[in-house]
Each structure stands twice: as C-alpha cells, then as structure tokens.
Amino acid sequence: MNRIVVANWKMNPQSQKEAEVLFKESYSLAKNIKNTKIILCPPFPFLFVSKKFKNKNISLGSQNVSTKTEGSYTGEVSPKMLKDMGVSYTIVGHGESRRLGETNEIINQKILNLLKYKLTPILCVGESVRDANGSFLLLVEEQIKKSLIGVSGAQMKNIIVAYEPIWAIGKNATREATKEEFMEMKIFIKKVVSDIYTPKIAHSIIIIYGGSVNPLNTRSFIQDGGADGLLVGRDSINPKKFGAVLSALN
Ligand code: PGA
User: Fold this and answer.
1) How does strand 206-210 pair with strand 120-125?
2) How far is the CA of 166 from the centre of ligand 1 (A)?
3) Residues designated as active site
4) Mean pLDDT per 10-residue segment, the chain (250 residues)
5) Taking each helix axis from N to C terminus, what angle separates 104-116 and 135-147, rounded to the nearest 10 degrees?
6) I need a labelling partner for 17 at 20 to 30 A (CA). Which of 77, 206, 223, 238 fits?
7) Taking the model in full, what pTM does it have?
8) Atom 1 in ligand 1: which residue has the minimum CA distance?
C-alpha cells in the first residue's frame, strides 16, 4: 500500500516567489520516491502556483474549506473552487484551527461538504493534554463521533484520519509522541470507527501520525508504530529535512 505524507505548510511562505521555489524543490524530491503519495498543502493563494508542476507522486491539498457551497459568504472558499484548482485533499480539525474556533460541529459540516464534491478530508484529531485517567481517549472519541455524523460507511473509506496530539504540534511542542502512544491511539481510533460502522471499515481506514515529525523519528512511526503515513509541518517547508523524511520512508 502507498504511504501518505501530508506536507502542511501552514501560513508559509510569505511570497509567491518563495512558494514557487518550495514547490519546485518538493517536486524534485518526489522524483526518486517510491510507494509514497505526497500531498502538498500550501496556503490558498499558492494553490494556483502548483499548476506549473506535475508529478504522479504528488497531489494537492488545502488547509481549509468552507461549510458553505457558494454565494454570499465573505472570505470563504468552496469545495468546487478547490476542485477546480486541482485540490484532492483538505485538512480539517487541525489543532491550530480548533484553537481559532473550529468546533466538531463545524468540522462535521466541512467534511460533509468535501465529500459531496468528492474531495478527501484529512480529519485531524488529538488531545491537548494526556491525563492519567485516560479521559483524553474520551475526547478523541467525541471528536471522531461528532465529526462523522451523517457520513456513510462508503464515504468513511475516503477519509484519512490523522492522530495529532496537540502537545506534539508546532514550535511549542513539549515533545513528540512515542510510537507506542501512536499504536495505542491507532487501535483506539479503529475501535471507535468500528463501533460507528463495521470492523471491516475500521480495518481499512488510513490512520497517519502528525506532530514534530522529523527525519529521525519517521522510520519509527511508520515501521514500528504502523502509521499509514505522516503529517509534516515545520520540516515540510525545509526541503533538506523534508527530503530526509521522504528518504527515511524508503
Ligand atoms: P509540526 O506540525 O510538524 O511542525 O509539529 C505538524 C502539524 O501540522 O500538525
């Protein structure tokens, strides 16, 4: 099976020129990579820039989408617009977006909107703290259940779930997760999905890890932790490090 590497550029870079360089370098890194699907997720304005490049290993993703379809919604971007730009995947429920007010209900509406237009949601779930009582598991369960209201079993097969503990994400990360923590959560997520749908669907879903992924921990999450892929933030905008992450997969 193809592994998945999602490159989340977040609110970087700051100019079209820099974005072009980053696309160019990412595309050239992808040339020698096998059995891996790379999903580049630039900020909205730079989706357009990617039209210059082509590589079968690379797909385009966005970092957000509207809950609405079209019309008078200032500042919103519809799934149709994204599709027209060549986008196939969209990140929803990222910890950084939840912090800015994206609730499970909003995430659910975005997922339904994406599925309607055959875009693949990358649903991020994860707790901000781990408590000794394990109530963080209930929080992740709630995130999954509320986000998937109205999603059919057939549609569920087209959703990628990213386990992204908030404490492991970005510059303020306290540490990266361990492969054991990922493995535990992967089993837990499958159990929750199995309860909502069927064991067969739970077995088939794609679960990736995100949070301080770097060239040194890549192998451990994939080979030992059994992750189907990775969501890379900081190291995806540093071509040297991103190249090293991709090489560690091979
Ligand atoms: P990071 O970000 O790799 O910089 O921790 C991960 C993410 O976007 O969730």
Assistant:
1) unpaired
2) 9
3) 94, 164
4) 93 97 95 92 96 91 98 98 97 97 98 98 96 94 98 97 96 93 97 98 97 97 96 98 94
5) 40
6) 77
7) 0.97
8) 233
Q: How far is the CA of 61 from the centre of ligand 1 (A)?
A: 15
C-alpha to C-alpha distance for 152 and 201, rounded to whole angstroms: 11
What's the CA angle centered on 108, arms 93 and 135, to 5 degrees?
A: 60
Dig out the tokens for 152 from the structure. 């059919």
> From the CB of 233, is ligand 1 less than 6 Å away?
yes
Task: Give the CATH number of the domain where residue 15 resides.
Answer: 3.20.20.70
Q: Per the structure, how many domains does the chain have?
A: 1
Which residue puts its alpha carbon closest to atom 3 of ligand 1?
233
The closest of 139, 125, 12 to 63, measured between CA atoms, is 12
Q: Whose CA is nearest to atom 2 of ligand 1?
A: 233
As a whole number of Å, the CA-based R_g of the chain is 17
Q: Where are the beta strands (DSSP E) in the chain?
A: 3-8, 36-41, 58-62, 87-92, 120-125, 160-163, 206-210, 229-232
Q: In this prediction, what percent of the chain has a pLDDT beyond 90?
A: 94
CB 43 less than 6 A from any atom of ligand 1: no
- Domain holding 199, by residue range, is 3-249
